[in-house]
């Protein structure tokens, strides 16, 4: 029998008992050890902890849904390590949330680059372009430097706003200004605030040492001081969008052969699995051979199927970023690798959804995405290497597999 998805990871299903077949339990256990190997190099998520004044920390996601998500950081303190060494404006790219992954690794800067050289990259189609490299020092940016920064962003059709200099000292009075792109997204530049960078790798968040820093965030939610209501933040992407999925160049992230053999050894489970996807049970092997193993780089809403009382039943669920799935030729998630559970597109989330299960670090209902089928077959997936951040181009239907990278599931209460 196909297992109930709630038997894996941190999953709950409306207080009902957990059920699952022996075949899939063995399947899960065989992959667990391999999953740990891949999880070590999982996709990196950046969070920001913002403290204008000394106060209890409040973690905030740097979230984005377009090619313009960047974080420019300026630190003025000095010290012996990269976290306190002088940094003017270094570019931090959130690999897991970019719609377009960087293709030129030599142009990327580390989050805390030693020295005071400032690098500015601009998002182009399928990559980033280094457009400026200058020494600007720390502290507030002079207004002429602000306009120079805007000029560097002309490739994004950016305009500058909210710059005030009432005392005539040549600096922006409140340490913030807005750069707005033609697509409606905006860069909110803030100077003088203390921010602590937090990294999340897979399911583990490690808080780095604090350093006084300024930040520049390309935020689709609006200019400085403006936030979009959470209900408006959720977006639907298609499986053809570059950078929505990740992969491991050194090996596959899903054991397709084991999935097929497990289903073939359990005709009842195979029949239910095939029914979900509208195919004959005898065609499962051919169908699966055309699927592509990928890693979700977004917390993704799905309809997740499992067994109860001899019936295969849907559950509205949210898969954690870092979970490996199989996608069809239109980029739609159709199976969760660790459990083999079939997946379908989700139902719309309630306005105020309630969740069962323990939230993973950084989880927010405002950051849940849906990955819809592209309107045509994908000729080539553009994936993000979850270890290096480089782009991987992959033709759909990659056979063979070596490992599975899995994350927990949330089940949405209706």
Please give a quick description of this structure:
It is built from five helices and 25 strands. With 414 residues, the protein is α+β, with helices and mostly antiparallel strands. It has two domains: 216 residues, no CATH class; 157 residues, no CATH class.
What is the fold's blueprint, element by element?
Blueprint: H1 22-39, E1 44-51, E2 59-61, E3 71-75, E4 87-92, E5 117-124, E6 127-135, H2 143-152, E7 159-161, E8 176-180, E9 186-190, E10 194-201, E11 204-207, E12 214-219, E13 236-238, E14 245-247, H3 256-264, H4 267-277, H5 284-289, E15 292-296, E16 300-308, E17 311-319, E18 324-327, E19 333-336, E20 343-344, E21 354-356, E22 370-372, E23 381-385, E24 391-394, E25 409-413
Q: What do these coordinates show?
A:
By secondary structure, the protein is an alpha+beta fold. The chain folds into 2 domains: 5-41 and 235-413, no CATH class; 64-220, no CATH class. It is 13% helix and 31% strand. The chain has helices spanning 22-39, 143-152, 256-264, 267-277, 284-289, and strands at 44-51, 59-61, 71-75, 87-92, 117-124, 127-135, 159-161, 176-180, 186-190, 194-201, 204-207, 214-219, 236-238, 245-247, 292-296, 300-308, 311-319, 324-327, 333-336, 343-344, 354-356, 370-372, 381-385, 391-394, 409-413. A hairpin with a 2-residue loop joins strand 16 (300-308) and strand 17 (311-319). The protein is elongated, with a radius of gyration of 23 Å. It starts with 21 loop residues before the first helix and ends with a strand.
């Amino acid at each position: 029998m196909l297992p109930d998805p709630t038997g894996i990871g941190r999953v709950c299903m409306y207080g009902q008992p957990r059920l699952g077949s022996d075949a899939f339990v063995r399947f899960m256990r065989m992959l667990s050890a391999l999953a740990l190997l891949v999880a070590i190099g999982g996709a990196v998520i950046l969070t920001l902890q913002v403290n204008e004044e000394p106060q209890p920390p409040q973690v905030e996601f740097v979230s984005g849904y377009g090619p313009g998500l960047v974080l420019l950081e300026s630190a003025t303190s000095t010290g012996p390590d990269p976290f306190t060494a002088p940094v003017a404006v270094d570019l931090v790219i959130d690999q897991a949330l970019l719609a377009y992954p960087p293709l030129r690794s030599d142009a990327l800067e580390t989050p805390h680059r030693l020295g005071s050289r400032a690098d500015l990259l601009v998002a182009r189609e399928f990559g980033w372009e280094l457009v400026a490299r200058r020494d600007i020092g720390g502290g507030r940016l002079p207004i002429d430097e602000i306009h120079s920064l805007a000029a560097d962003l002309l490739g994004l059709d950016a305009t500058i706003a909210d710059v005030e200099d009432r005392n005539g000292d040549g600096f922006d009075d409140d340490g913030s200004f807005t750069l707005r792109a033609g697509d409606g997204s905006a860069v909110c530049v803030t100077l003088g605030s203390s921010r602590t960078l937090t990294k999340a790798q897979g399911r583990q968040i490690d808080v780095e040492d604090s350093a006084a820093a300024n930040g520049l965030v390309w935020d689709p939610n609006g200019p400085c001081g403006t936030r979009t209501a959470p209900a408006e933040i959720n977006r639907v992407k298609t499986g053809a969008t570059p950078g929505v999925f990740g992969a491991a160049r050194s090996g596959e992230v899903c054991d397709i052969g084991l999935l097929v053999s497990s289903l073939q050894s359990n005709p009842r489970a195979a029949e239910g699995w095939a029914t979900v996807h509208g195919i004959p049970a005898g065609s499962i092997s051919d169908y699966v051979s055309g699927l592509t193993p990928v890693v979700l780089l977004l917390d993704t809403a799905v309809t997740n199927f499992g067994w109860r009382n001899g019936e295969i039943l849907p559950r509205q669920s949210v898969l954690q970023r870092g979970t490996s799935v199989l996608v069809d030729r239109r980029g739609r998630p159709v199976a969760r690798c660790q459990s083999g559970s079939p997946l379908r597109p989700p139902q719309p989330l309630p306005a105020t959804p309630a969740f069962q299960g323990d939230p993973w670090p950084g989880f927010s209902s405002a950051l849940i995405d849906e990955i819809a089928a592209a309107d045509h077959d994908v000729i080539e997936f553009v994936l993000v290497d979850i270890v290096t951040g480089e782009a991987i181009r992959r033709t759909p239907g990659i056979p063979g597999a070596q490992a599975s990278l899995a994350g927990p599931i949330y089940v949405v209460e209706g």
